[in-house]
Fold this sequence. Notes:
Layout: E1 2-5, H1 12-15, E2 17-20, E3 30-40, H2 42-49, E4 65-73, E5 85-88, E6 103-107, E7 111-113, H3 120-124, H4 127-138, E8 147-151, H5 156-167, E9 171-176, H6 179-188, E10 192-195, H7 201-207, E11 211-216, H8 219-229, E12 230-238, H9 250-256, E13 259-262, H10 270-285, E14 294-298, H11 302-310, E15 316-320
Parallel strand pairs: 8-9, 8-11, 9-10, 11-12, 12-13, 14-15
Antiparallel strand pairs: 1-2, 3-4, 3-6, 3-15, 4-5, 5-7
Helix pairs in contact: 2-11, 4-5, 4-10
Amino acid sequence: MRAALYDRYGASEEVLRVQDVARPEPGPGEVRIKIEYSGVNPTDWKSRGGSTPRPIDGFQIPHHDGAGVIDAVGDGVDQARVGQRVWTWLAASGRPWGTAAEWSVVPQAQAVPLPDGISAELGASLGVPAMTAHRCLFADGPVEGKTVLVAGGAGAVGHYAIELAKYAGARVISTVSGPEKADLAARAGADLVVNYREPSASEQISSFGPVDRVIEVALGANLALDLAVLNPGGQVVTYAAEAADPVLTVRACMNANVVLRFVLLYGVPAAAMNRAASDITAALASGSLSELPVTRFGLDDIARAHDAVESGAVGKVLLSLG
């Protein structure tokens, strides 16, 4: 099969290449997927670039997220799954067979059935962003009837955090940096969208009511705003690392009785991951999740796809393998 891969860390143009490799066969408890689209996330270029290095056993095919059709199953997997349309999560975690290839092999739980009528593009856009959004939203309990602030609502995690929060019965505020991103957050369903650069941002958010939970993309930059609008005992849940580690204002955090939670998907317990996959699929089936604007690249242009994500492309970047 044709696959994009790397065997050392470095810049995209220097280490990524496309070549023929042996098509993998599914082992016990695994399924093989003919990939139609592969989703690119920040974690992919960070791993390839070496900022979050993991051992490479010979070579690494990147990307955790994808969508396609199961064409073979290993021992212990129901043969009826052959022909099933699926979306994947963490395909490349601790394994060489990421989704940037014509085929990928994953444990069967990580190939989740796509509901009828859901496009492969949307399926390939889920994975890391939607699973991260789910963990951030629900690790501290239900959000029904609560007010959730989603920082960076135009990003992929923010997009699905808005939609999953609305699906779960929350009121949602989102902060963005400009009109284009404000439109994306509003279309995702945010009840209030605020430009965090405006001097009145805190007042605009507070006028909507105190916030119970914050889904945070930039803790250091936004903590003062979060504390200003948060209910006592509320939670700030952050899922991204900034270039410089933040300095916590301890007394202000104590005054707010705030709970700080840090989320990295690779360490989330399996039961929570499986619940997230189930909840996301139910939201898909209900029509509650939508696509972001998509930029498509071919497999041979994987370096350009990585560079687009690294440079902050708005929307979702996908590789087309079909």
